[in-house]
Every structure is written in C-alpha cells, then in structure tokens.
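Review form for a predicted model. The reviewer records the input and the model, then writes brief findings.
Reviewer: anonymous (R2)
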Amino acid sequence: MTIERGLRLAAGIVVLLSVALGYFVNPAWLLLTAFAGLNLLQSAFTNWCPMVWFLAPLGLQPCVARAAQRPARSADD
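Model under review:
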C-alpha cells in the first residue's frame, strides 16, 4: 500500500467514525468530520499532510508517478 492510499483510507475511517459517533453519541463529534475535511482541503493546495508522519514509519511507500511506470517509447511508436 502506498502513502497516498493510506491517507485516503485514514480519512475515510475518520469521517465514517466521526459521523457514527456524532449520530449515536454526541453531535459534537461532527467537528472531527469538519477537521478531516479542512485537512484534506489544505493538503490539496499545499501537498502536505501531517498523517504522512504516521504512515511513513509504518513502511508505506510514496506513490510512483504513472509516467515513470510506463516503458520508454521508441522512435518506431
């Protein structure tokens, strides 16, 4: 699993968990959903997310760009 997929997984878990806690326990838990949304919004503009600090030591690797994964095109193509 890559760090990017781990980030999406963590964000999804936080949002679903906080919505469930907001519904069943206390509506104040919905503030955690708002925090997750704000964090995703700022990371879209800054390309920085604190969750990377937790995922990188777990052994998750950075995502490799698709262009780097494609074989080089020859002059015949």
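Findings: The chain has a mean pLDDT of 87.
Further findings: DSSP finds four helices and no strands in the chain.
Recommendation: see findings above.
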